[in-house]
Amino acid sequence: MFDSLWVEKYRPSILDDLVLSEYNRKYFESLRKNQECPNLMLSGCPGIGKSTLAKILVNDILDCQELYINASEESGIDTIRSKVVGFSQTKSFDGKIKVVILDEVDGLSSVTGGTGRSSAQQALRNVMEEYAGNTRFILTCNYRYKVIPALHSRCQEFDLTPPFDDVVKRCVKILKAEGVKVENGDKKLLFDLIKSKYPDLRKIINVLQKSVINGKLYLVDNINNLEFAEDIFNKVVNKKDINNIREFYIQHEVQFGNDYHQLMKDFFEVVYSSGLEFNKKRALMLCISTAMYQHQIVMDAEINFYTCLLAISEEIG
Hints:
Elements: H1 6-9, H2 22-34, E1 40-43, H3 50-62, E2 66-70, H4 77-88, E3 98-103, H5 120-130, E4 135-141, H6 149-153, E5 156-159, H7 164-177, H8 187-197, H9 201-210, E6 212-213, E7 216-217, H10 225-237, H11 242-251, H12 260-272, H13 278-295, H14 301-316
Parallel strand pairs: 1-4, 1-5, 2-3, 3-4
Antiparallel strand pairs: 6-7
Helix pairs in contact: 4-5, 10-12, 12-13, 13-14
């Protein structure tokens, strides 16, 4: 049913299919021998295979009973008290360990409410220790800072960011499997596309599928992100009309992938290396860092970037 979706068609089902660093691959493969594993925390940006690895560890490596919970959807303490505790307190029929997969654990509540009740993350601390005799926990997260330190200390942590060269090889392998022709002139564009979306392999595969028409790959020439950010910065410094600047970067959204968070990172580097007086430069970098923080919670990333430019233009005067 999912053959029309490349991200599902080529989703790994065994450890050998995953794009992992050499160390991570050897470690996870070593778990097969003893059929045992510690509590794990798998971290990294979206689209690198954290959830997929967690399911492979359970189904392919350990072959054990599991409870899967998407913690971003079931984020309250009641999930821990009912589902997790109910599953963890009993032993499995075959004597093997049981595993609780808490996907996107950074979505679990971490702040105690006004009622005095513990948060879900706080409640999980005791559960992980009390049922350690027969249950292990595999936690995945996009943002490590959103997970309380007590959970970090109870887990062995792994950053699953895949090696760039292996990501390129995986993309080429998928294109060959689909019979897609890549002309010599498109090879650099393909490399630049992968580089611009790295390490989000899921995003890269989706963009590749969108770019294939009748078995041929059509790619636009990606702009140099730093040069693009510098162009915007120069327009602001030269006091160009702010509405024209907004129209300019919106027209180029396809080229920079509509990734305003990356654009702000590049903008920060441009300001940092600029020849502005230090106090002025410091004020601008503070504006950008505030906008980058807000990027995680705002509904519209473009408006957030635009208001950042407004603040910068006021600071420049």
